[in-house]
Fold this protein.
Amino acid sequence: TLAMAKPPEMPNTAPTEIKEGNLSEGKQIDLLWAQSSNVTCFPGTFATSFNGNHVFYRFSQPPSQDFYFRLTPPSDVDVSMYVLQNPKPAGQLPPNVEVAWRCHKAYYDNPGQPEQLHVQGYKNTYDVVVAVVGAKAATEGAYKLEIWDMPGRQW
């Protein structure tokens, strides 16, 4: 079993940004990229958590800025989320990713419940790709992605 950390404590302020969407806006992709030794995002044994439609969002993460993400689906939809961090300039979107500096993921089997991630900033600017994914081959379902951009550790 791939160990997952406890969900992060989320900020107690209003989100910096909110994105609302539907899994139907994305598409299913080949997941082999995620198992590459240059990416190591999630193993093939966890494919059912990431085998639905993928909807991507891209952000620039300034030095020493942390991002918090909360992804909330309706009660009948199970979603997963992963976040890729790469140095600037921006790279390719999955499945055309050849390298990832970091991959953060949240994929609890919990229909209707939020998935949450904290993505720490570092000394440099990073390209951040957030993937909202339908678990168990889901291709339809509304969601709300809340984003907090907050000062982080000063390197």
